[in-house]
Design goal:
Order of helices and strands: EEEEHEEEHEHHEEEEEEEEEEHEHEHEE
Largest sheet: 7 strands, mixed
Strand content: 25-35%
Distance between the termini: 21 Å
Radius of gyration: 23 Å
Shape: globular
Number of helices: 7
Helix content: 10-25%
Structural class: alpha/beta
Number of strands: 22
């Protein structure tokens, strides 16, 4: 769920790879993956489905009231929800039957079936979920307002991950962490909220514009501001799993491509008031999630390391193909325009099933990405809901 992003677009239809087709079904696929010709619908093999904000507003409120529409802001905040099956200690007995036809002879397990040849014990499974908030956007008021409009279930958020110490990603956490923690306490949740930060020192960042360095304000929130009752703050520098192992939070992202060279004119402030060049932004991290039967979806907030470097690292670390890329690709601005074509070439080599680019990607890059990935590219928009489908 896109809580905060640079753009709002409640009307546009989804890209081709997310467009529903006739006679698809979310039920179990047939052996061939296509219609059997006996009235069985073909499975829904779309990598992702999309719900426009307008549809959500009409569904939730039954009226078209623009007071319920989210506000855009320069930044990013994504709520990631992973569903998974957890085996329980006890088992249940199901009947086993051999299904035979001209093309297939194999064994299937069913909850109940007539003329079963035997019964077999299998572990019970329960569907569970875990929720991770990835960044908070630039403004506490915008985050709080949009979360309310989207009816975000605050007590269900288990983990908050800050990608890097830039105020357009960190400042909204001043409201998010406080609101989530309070909601969890009020609901009687027994576990503390986990706030996952990079181990490097929180500092002021700046950008040089027309020869002058401007500090990014307001300052990043302190560790104390992102702590409190029933909050467990962790400082990490290496890749690790969170959310019951559903999400991978990266460590330092290797810079390997020849064209992804950080942010020209980016500086970090020292305690003595001086500035030092810091084009690499080495504290930035991404989040990735492996989709059953597909591959990994990479969530990159700003991609200061370069989105190709980010995706290559995720593919290598998680030993999986690339299903989706979501977030800011940082291709906006005259200083990085010359990277767009090389970035597109690098992404093509990775063969993602879908690209959802927002925040700092920029309109020139989005236009070229659409030309290169007409079937499976779509801009991210605030208020949009995206569901990645397992196989």
């Amino acid at each position: 769920i896109n809580i905060v992003d640079n753009e709002t677009d409640a009307l546009s239809s989804p890209c081709s790879c997310m467009t529903p087709t006739p006679n698809i079904s979310k039920s179990t696929p047939t052996n061939t993956g296509t219609s059997t010709g006996t009235g069985t619908a073909a499975p829904d093999n779309r990598p992702c489905t999309y719900t426009q904000e307008l549809v959500t507003v009409l569904s939730d409120h039954k009226i078209l009231n623009f007071d319920y529409m989210c506000h855009a802001a320069h930044g990013l905040s994504l709520l990631l929800i992973a569903e998974y099956d957890e085996e329980e200690n006890e088992t249940e007995t199901v009947q086993e039957v051999t299904k035979s036809n001209d093309n297939d002879t194999s064994t299937y397990a069913y909850a109940s079936v007539q003329n079963a040849s035997s019964t077999v014990p299998v572990p019970k499974k329960r569907r569970k979920s875990t929720q991770l908030l990835f960044d908070g956007g630039p403004d506490p008021a915008v985050w709080r307002s949009n979360a309310q409009k989207l009816k975000i279930d605050l007590p269900s958020i288990d983990t908050v991950v800050l990608s890097h110490y830039h105020v357009d990603h960190s400042n909204g956490l001043r409201a998010a962490v406080k609101d989530i923690s309070a909601a969890r306490i009020q609901s009687g949740h027994p576990d503390p909220l986990v706030v996952d930060l990079h181990k490097s020192k929180i500092t002021t960042r700046g950008l040089k514009v027309r020869g002058k360095i401007y500090a990014m304000k307001p300052d990043n929130p302190t560790i104390e501001e992102l702590g409190g009752t029933m909050i467990h703050t962790t400082l990490n520098g290496k890749g690790h799993l969170v959310g019951n192992g559903c999400f991978y939070v990266s460590g330092e992202i290797p810079r390997k491509t020849s064209f992804e060279l950080g942010i020209p004119g980016h500086f970090t402030g020292l305690e003595d008031g001086n500035w030092v060049p810091d084009e690499d932004v080495m504290d930035e991290r991404y989040v990735a999630c492996k989709i059953r039967g597909r591959g990994i979806v990479v969530f990159s907030a700003c991609s200061h390391a370069g989105i190709v470097n980010v995706c290559n690292d995720a593919v290598e670390k998680l030993s999986s193909n690339l299903t989706g890329v979501v977030g800011g690709f940082h291709l906006a601005g005259s200083s990085v325009d010359n990277r767009i074509d090389s970035t597109i070439s690098g992404l093509k080599e990775l063969e993602p099933e879908i690209l959802l680019a927002g925040h700092c990607t920029g309109w020139r890059a989005k236009a070229k990405l659409y030309q290169a990935f007409e079937y499976n590219f779509q801009p991210l928009t605030v208020g949009g809901k995206y569901v990645f489908n397992s196989m």
